[in-house]
Amino acid sequence: MVLVTIFSRNLRSSCNILIGACCFFDLILFTDIIAFVYSLYIETPQDICFYINIPADFGAFASNACVLMVGVDRLLAITNPQKYMYIETHKKKYLTLLLMFPISYASYLLYVGFGQRNPKKTVICLLPESLGHAYDLFAMTSFIINLFVPPIYIYVYFKIKKCQMKASTQSVFKSLFVTVILVVSGWMTTDLIGVLTVIIPMNPEVARMIQLYCGAFIFTSSSFNAYVYYRISKDYRSAIRLMFRLDKPGQKWRTKSLNGINQPTFDGSTKQDGPPTTTRRDTTVYPNSRKF
Which residues are in the G-protein coupled receptors family 1 profile domain (predicted)? Predict the structure, then answer.
């Protein structure tokens, strides 16, 4: 998803760039696996684990907040299209403003985690262990952020259903909506369990193991991004196939037409809704032609 956003010139809208940014944060989150494997073979103090896991921690924090910002972008686009078109002319400032929240949020949590370093404690290097008590703060704030995400996306989803929008716009948001359901479900499950391990009195070792295994929900939900966009969004599918040279430039996948608008077929021709039009046969007689 990150590569196709960079590669394709057709994926240059603010929404596409924000989706690419969220996927980039998900990508660096997976570096947590490297830190985990490292700690299995080499005894790792908690402070070293924190430094190794900085990219993964930053990706986890920023990805969570980035999903909310994509929802804000779609909400603005659907509620005030004229203003949004004006904003698109100042795309750099607009994207900087939206991405300030995920980056600032992630940076603050890393700062808190920096103060929780403990060189005397040996850990299995995963996200909860790398942050110390800062993970509790992350679980609670992340849970609050995810409470705002579903209402925004549901509102935008039904708003798009009522509006007459391009099929490509609808398919992109549909794939985005499915992705958000998966990601938010993973995060909400993880955050809820993380909050419960803080609130409910239990053995610290049991709480630690529960938090460690919760990461499976996040990794599973985040790994479906590319597949969902490829299957549902024709814009992303076409861009991905072009990037891997599976299609020739100019070829497009057959799309469903919307409101009688001509839509491109896979062979590059156009298809018109409604009854087929008749064509006149060319009856012109050309000189020097031979009849067989």
Answer: 1-229
Per the CB < 8 A criterion, the answer to whether 128 and 50 are in contact is: no
Q: Where are the alpha helices (DSSP H) in 115-133?
A: 127-131
Round to whole Å and give the CA distance between 101 and 96.
Answer: 9
Domain assignment present for residue 138? The answer is: yes
Residue 162 is part of a domain; what is its CATH number? 1.20.1070.10
Q: Which helix (H) or strand (E) holds 279?
A: none
CB 19 within 8 A of CB 50: no
- Letter for the amino acid at 211? Q
- pLDDT tens digits for 229-244? 778 778 888 888 888 8
Distance (Å, rounded) from C-alpha 248 to C-alpha 96?
35
DSSP 287: T
Residue 262 counted as domain residue: no
Residue 78 confidence (pLDDT) above 80:
yes
- Contact between 229 and 1 (Cβ < 8 Å): yes
Written as one string, the DSSP assignment of 209-223 is HHHHHHHHHHHHHHT
- Residue pair 5/16 in contact (Cβ under 8 Å)? The answer is yes
